[in-house]
Amino acid sequence: MRQRQLYYVGQTNSKFRFRFNNHKKTIQDKSVNFPVAKHFCGEPNHSISNLKCILLGSNYQSVNERLKSESKWVVKLSTHIRGLNKDLGILSDFPFVINNPSQAAKVN
User: Fold this and answer.
1) What is the pLDDT of residues 21-46, one digit of tens each?
2) What is the pTM (predicted TM-score) of this model?
3) Which pLDDT score, from 0 to 100, does residue 49 have?
């Protein structure tokens, strides 16, 4: 049976390798307070070998630029709806942003 593919977008000011290893460690430790680890611990026949990471950007000029890029990818990939992201990142700080599609009818 094929595993469903869920995506998670994250940003870090650390080296990519360090962040990726951190995700693997939370999975090994079954640290379910972290979205990626919670997903891997909750899926039967799911192991760390199923984890794949892709670097979507690097060398940002500022922290704000990096945070905006993270939010752009969360929205573009809909990982806050059909993935492992809990929110829209930095965009969640703005009241005009709809985090939940069911809220759209209430706004209009």
Assistant:
1) 998 999 999 988 888 888 888 877 78
2) 0.72
3) 83
Q: What is the DSSP string of 23-73?
A: HHHHHHTT-TTSHHHHHHHHSTT--GGG----------SSHHHHHHHHHHH
Could you tell me which of 70, 69, 67, 68 has the C-alpha nearest to residue 85?
70
Predicted local distance difference test score (pLDDT) of residue 78: 92
Token pair 């995700």: residue: 23
Helices 35-42, 16-28: axis angle to 10 degrees equals 40
* Residues 97, 60, 63: CA angle, nearest 5 degrees: 55
Q: How far is CA 65 from CA 56, 57, 60, 62, in A?
A: 13, 11, 6, 5
- Residue 43 CB: number of other CB atoms within 10 A? 13
What average pLDDT score do residues 47-52 get? 82
